[in-house]
Each structure stands twice: as structure tokens, then as C-alpha cells.
Design a protein that fits this description.
alpha+beta; two-stranded antiparallel ribbon; about 50% helix
């Protein structure tokens, strides 16, 4: 339980702070005044004032969950806060507001991309283009036959194999005919072993019991491949959301409790599992925030785009009312999803 809470706090803190930093750095670069950048939520326990033309606070809050960036001129200012002429958010041209709103999510996507590249460099992925064995599964035929991690399978029943899928197909074909003869290269010598490979009751087909070796990418290749991996995850997430909205298939929607549980599981499985989970959540947060829903960045972006097209801005009072309504609906949805998490955790069987 404690592991899940700690892991959840770390995940949410990193993802939200990166998101808010995207808003912050873009606002600063475009000349928009920032009142405060906060680490955490709740009452302030420490504040540092940045001196200069525009007064700004760096603050540390009591609860270390996320954070926020408060831009001048985006809402009601507190007592001593003033908005310098021409530096308020709502005073800016539409294109500046568009990029400030967009870049919070883009920073989440960037974090997911960089974490994926780090994973490819530091941990690696299973190399399906080779037949080198990475690990052996306990109690399976490969272990009983004396195969070892690092062995490279070069032939099955005399049939040469060059990559993992070809090897798997050859093993299934050979297993159906009786004992299987496997030729492996170990260091500078070649060995031959013969073993039966029966159908595995759990998997429903013959299983030798080996997994591919991991391949670590060089930094340049890792960055290039991280683009493809991130784009692939993006398409899967968007498809899942579309299937859920269109009710094409049942999709599990997870709230804070479910995310906390998964965070703890990822942390217990090891640092690399946690890195991939953090990348997944950051990408999720970035994409969901761009959905055209009032109160989210995507909803605000819609109003900015409409302003750019029609050269006319919706009255601020009306837009704020729409966002407040959207926020209330989002809170209601979050309560419903959290209730589902609690029900599934304690009562569902």
C-alpha cells in the first residue's frame, strides 16, 4: 500500500510539473507575466520571490502531488498582485495564447519520448531479428535440455533459422512430429541437443521456454526509434478512447486509485518498468489535456482557434462559465471513475 502511494505521488508530481513547466517556459519566452510556479498543492510552506520587473513566486506546497503555474491576467489576481501592462495572458494575441496552452501537453509528450529513448539505451528491447536466447523459463524443455542464456539457435531439425519468428514457427512444426533436434552456437562452438516439446497447458501450443535476448540501442538509434514507439503508443491510446466513446468494445477506464495500484506494481517490478509506466502516464496526460473539453487545455485551444478564424472573441464571462461547467462535469466523471476503482478493488469478483 505504501509503495503504491509513494509511486503514485512520484508519477503525478513529475507528469504534472513537466506539464506546468511547459506552460511556464512558453509564457516567459513570449513575454507573459507569471505570478507563481508551485511545487505541490495546498498551503504554501516556503516561498521565494524572484526580483525583477515582474514579481514572481517560487513556492513549495504542503501536499507533494503535482503543482501549478499561475499566469497573470488569466484569472482573478490576489491582493498585492498586479498585471503589468501588455503582459497579461488575456491581453496576448491569439497565436501566443495558443502556444502557451499547447506546450503543456507537448512537454508531456516530450517527456514520454525522452524516457522511451532512455529505456531503449539503458534496458533495451527484445531482439526479434536474431535467435539469441535471453532468458530460460523455469521447468520448460529448454532448461531441461541444457540450453543457456546467450546461446544462439541456428537450426531446428536441420532447418536453418535466422530470426525469432522463423525459429518459433520451425519449433512448432518440428514439435508436432516428435522429438526436436536443436543446433545452437555457444561462444566459438556448435552444440546439438534433442528434446521433446509437448503442448503447454497454459499457452495451448508447444513451448521451448526461451525469450529473446535484449538489444540496447546506441543513443542516436534510440532517439530515432523512440519516435516510432511514442507514435505507436499515441495511436493505441487514441483508438482506445474512440472505442470507449463509440462503445465499440469494452475498455477499462482507470481513475486515481487504479493508477496508484499500477504505479506501485511498476515500481516493485523494477526501475525500468517504472520508467516505461511513467512515460505511458505522461503521454496519457498530454493527450487527454488536448481533448476539446471545456476546462482542459484542449477546450481553451478550441476557443482560441475560433477567435483566429472568425476574428472575434467570445465574451470572457461566457467563456469562463463554459469552462466552469466543463470542470464540474469532469469532477463528476472523476468521482464516478474513482467509485468504480473502489468497487473493483474491494467488492468485484
Amino acid at each position: 500500500m505504501l509503495t503504491s502511494v509513494v509511486a503514485f505521488i512520484i508519477v503525478i508530481a513529475i507528469c504534472v510539473l513537466i506539464h506546468e513547466f511547459g506552460h511556464y517556459i512558453t509564457a516567459r519566452l513570449l513575454g507573459v507575466q507569471v505570478h507563481e510556479f508551485a511545487f505541490g498543492m495546498g498551503p504554501a510552506i516556503k516561498q521565494i520571490e524572484r526580483k525583477g520587473r515582474s514579481r514572481m513566486l517560487w513556492s513549495w506546497r504542503l501536499f507533494p502531488v503535482g503543482g501549478f503555474c499561475r499566469l497573470a491576467g488569466m484569472g482573478e489576481e490576489s491582493g498585492e498582485e498586479t498585471v503589468l501592462p501588455g503582459m497579461g495572458f488575456n491581453e496576448q494575441p491569439a497565436w501566443k495564447r495558443f502556444f502557451i496552452l499547447l506546450n503543456g501537453s507537448l512537454f508531456n509528450v516530450l517527456l514520454a519520448f525522452l524516457l522511451t529513448a532512455v529505456f531503449l539505451c539503458g534496458h533495451g528491447v527484445m531482439n526479434m531479428e536474431d535467435t539469441k536466447i535471453g532468458t530460460l523459463m523455469e521447468g520448460f524443455p529448454a532448461q531441461r535440455a541444457g540450453l543457456e542464456a546467450g546461446d544462439r539457435i541456428v537450426a531446428v531439425n536441420g532447418r536453418p533459422v535466422g530470426h525469432w519468428r522463423e525459429m518459433s514457427a520451425a519449433l512448432r512444426d518440428a514439435a508436432a512430429k516428435g522429438d526436436v533436434t536443436i543446433e545452437v552456437q555457444r561462444a566459438d562452438r556448435t552444440l546439438t541437443v534433442t528434446t521433446p516439446i509437448p503442448d503447454n497447458a497454459e499457452y495451448g501450443h508447444p513451448m521451448l521456454g526461451v525469450t529473446p535476448a535484449l538489444e540496447r540501442y546506441a543513443p542516436g538509434r534510440a532517439l530515432r526509434n523512440a519516435v516510432g514507439y511514442t507514435w505507436g503508443m499515441t495511436k493505441l491510446m487514441l483508438k482506445g478512447v474512440w472505442d470507449w466513446v463509440a462503445q465499440r468494445q469494452e475498455v477499462d477506464v482507470t481513475g486515481p486509485i487504479g493508477i496508484a495500484s499500477m504505479s506501485g506494481r511498476a515500481l516493485r517490478e523494477g526501475p525500468w518498468s517504472f520508467v516505461t509506466f511513467l512515460a505511458l502516464i505522461s503521454l496519457n496526460l498530454g493527450l487527454l489535456n488536448l481533448f476539446p473539453i471545456p476546462a482542459l487545455d484542449g477546450g481553451r485551444i478550441v476557443f482560441v482557434l475560433l477567435e483566429m478564424v472568425f476574428r472575434r472573441r467570445l465574451p470572457e464571462r461566457v467563456e469562463n462559465w463554459i469552462h466552469m461547467t466543463g470542470f464540474a462535469l469532469l469532477i463528476a466523471l472523476m468521482i464516478f471513475i474513482t467509485w468504480q476503482d473502489v468497487y473493483n478493488l474491494f467488492w468485484a469478483r
